[in-house]
Design goal:
CATH architecture of the largest domain: 3-Layer(aba) Sandwich
Structural class: alpha/beta
Distance between the termini: 36 Å
Shape: globular
Strand order of the largest sheet: 1-2-3-14-4-15-21-17-19
Number of domains: 2
CATH superfamily of the largest domain: Zn peptidases
Largest sheet: 9 strands, mixed
Strand content: 15-25%
Radius of gyration: 24 Å
CATH topology of the largest domain: Aminopeptidase
Number of helices: 13
Oligomer: single chain
Length: about 475
């Protein structure tokens, strides 16, 4: 309907009402092409970074190609410097030093995580039973255990041999590689299994990864299949069974990122949570020349509470910011107070197939842009930093000025559960922080789904925030 034909009431309704916008509908042909082109780079990142170690390495490689150099504590810094800081090979901070006064302007921080739910291999994992050899596992992060059975798995990780040598392992990604497998029970015998709650369909101790089945050709040997497996690992990697004690190995889906739908509007892949935010975070810093000092923090261990030396609770990230402030002659307390952060983690997209889990008015919708969550947490906002109205207003203004398509979101109905992010850890440093991230369908499954429009909106939002 043309503007001339609209009634006063219709015009007033449009001007006063809040409505989400489908980004695909509002985007020009040129912008749609930019969305799809940007998605190609992201899908390569997903396939090349299925663990936090690999994602860190991938981001560092791209940073180097853009002229960024490694930073070490105590290094001299000046305006215009482009740096990256690696923490134990599992997290990375990519940053640029801006021209604005750091005490007055602070940092512009985007904090994402690069770990994802997976199946970790135990330290004493190898055993043989009934003509098969398995690896014992301990799942990592919140998963529906039954989703990880009867799918092709790849083995990724690092092993420190007894002589101290580090071995990188990746098996199952190439077409010529074998894949691995977790057995499930056939439905013909599964009445008891299917009669219980979904959380009990598969027990954690049943998530054993099938790794071999050929007996070693020696009649005098016991556990012949296990010996074949150990022998292959020894010949290829120099491993002995004891080396699993100092190994970090994970079984991850062997799927590659794929376009979903006849129109290719969506991307299906393992690890959207939270690499769909991490990729735009660091590429925004790589492609940004803001006057602000900007940092993209790609951290580990978010899925298990941000613990340990590589999680967001580690002091190293605060130490890094303090080192930058000191190098530039700034008072770190003043810098923290002036800083602003987007805690960029995914949220749950409204799914009409499971409508009962959502409160529709305050849910994020697929393809309607990146989603701002004023608060996360569980039930009574437990575990949330709950951003101030003033800071949300600042972010809204920045997005409006740059034409960013975005929406608001909550993680499902109030009493249904919820989830946390790294936001509270940045907020605890006296840094204004709010959550912003891409809506995801089937979150924490082996094959999650996102919209290319929301991915690109997230990138545009980061550029606007840094601007």
């Amino acid at each position: 309907m043309s503007e001339a034909k609209k009634t006063e009431g219709q015009k007033l309704q449009e001007s006063l009402s809040y409505q989400r916008k489908n980004y695909f509908e509002t985007a020009s042909k040129e912008e749609r092409k930019e969305m799809f082109d940007y998605a190609e780079g992201y899908m390569k990142f997903l396939d090349g970074g299925k663990t936090e170690r690999e994602a860190c390495e991938y981001a560092v490689k791209e940073a180097k190609e853009k002229g960024f150099t490694e930073y070490h504590f105590g290094d001299h810094l000046k305006k215009g410097d482009k740096k990256y800081f690696v923490n134990r090979g599992k997290s990375v901070v990519v940053f640029r030093i801006g021209s604005k006064n750091l005490e007055e302007d602070g940092f512009r921080i985007i904090a994402s995580h690069i770990d994802a739910p997976r199946i970790d291999i135990k330290q004493v994992p190898v055993y043989e039973d009934s003509g098969m050899c398995f690896l014992k596992t301990h799942y990592y992060g919140g998963i529906k255990k039954y989703q990880w059975t009867a799918i092709p798995l790849a083995l990724h990780g690092a092993v420190i041999l007894k002589d101290g040598k580090k071995i990188e392992i990746e098996i199952g990604e190439c077409d010529c590689d074998p894949v691995f497998y977790i057995n499930d029970l056939l439905p013909h015998l599964g009445a008891e299994q299917m009669g219980g709650p979904a959380s009990k369909i598969i027990d954690g101790e049943q998530l054993n990864v099938l790794i071999g089945g050929l007996p070693y050709e020696d009649k005098e040997v016991k556990e012949k299949i296990k010996l074949t497996v150990l022998n292959i690992l020894h010949e290829k990697y120099g491993m002995e069974e004891e080396d699993f004690l100092s190994a970090e190995l994970s079984a991850v889906p062997a799927f590659k990122a794929r376009d979903v739908g006849l129109d290719r509007a969506f991307i299906g892949a393992y690890g959207h949570d939270d690499r769909v935010c991490a990729y735009p975070a660091y590429t925004a810093v790589l492609n940004n020349e803001s006057e602000h000092t900007v940092l993209a923090m790609l951290v580990d261990k978010e899925e298990i509470g941000s613990e340990g030396t590589t999680g967001m609770q580690c002091k190293v990230y605060e130490d890094l910011m303090e080192e930058i402030a000191i190098a530039l002659g700034a008072n770190f307390r003043k810098v923290r107070a002036a800083s602003k952060c987007l805690s960029s983690d995914v949220t749950a997209a409204y799914d009409p197939n499971f409508a009962n889990a959502f409160e529709k008015l305050n849910s994020s919708f697929i393809s309607c842009g990146t989603a701002l969550c004023k608060y996360t947490g569980s039930r009574g906002k437990s575990g949330s930093s709950d951003a101030s109205a003033e800071f949300v207003g600042e972010v809204r203004k920045a997005f409006a000025e740059c034409g960013v398509i975005w929406q608001t979101a909550e993680l499902g109905k109030v009493d249904f559960g919820g989830g946390g992010t790294v936001a509270k850890f940045l907020a605890n440093l006296n840094i204004d922080t709010v959550d912003l991230g891409v809506p995801v369908i089937s979150m924490h499954s082996p094959f999650e789904l996102i919209s290319k429009a929301d991915l690109y909106s997230n990138y545009k939002a980061f550029l606007a925030f840094m601007k």
